[in-house]
Write a structure and sequence with these properties.
92 residues, 91% helix, 4 helices, single chain
Length: 92
């Protein structure tokens, strides 16, 4: 039973994480103010802002990092869904 729970839990967590980050990154693409606020307040973005300035760092994030994040989060969601389907099919 514990192995079954783990087999179902890990793909579900991966799907939820992928969905969360995809929605967050889509929001950053649609709402430049939200991306600007994130770049201003985020400790992980502080290095980029310090090196390039807030406007250039925000433009770099919008042009490259956010689309790359959407691709990665979509892949994480799809990989989790694929594994969840595989586990459910093997149980049936």
């Amino acid at each position: 039973m514990q192995v079954l729970l783990t087999a179902l839990l890990l793909p579900t967590i991966l799907m939820l994480a992928g969905l969360y980050f995809a929605v967050r990154n889509f929001r950053f693409l649609k709402n430049p103010h939200a991306l600007h606020e994130y770049m201003r307040k985020s400790p992980s973005a502080h290095r980029w802002v310090e090196k390039y300035g807030i406007d250039a760092a925000t433009k770099m994030a919008k042009d490259s990092f956010v689309p790359f994040g959407i691709v990665l989060s979509s892949l994480a969601f799809l990989f989790g869904a694929w594994n969840l389907v595989r586990v459910l099919i093997s149980l049936w």
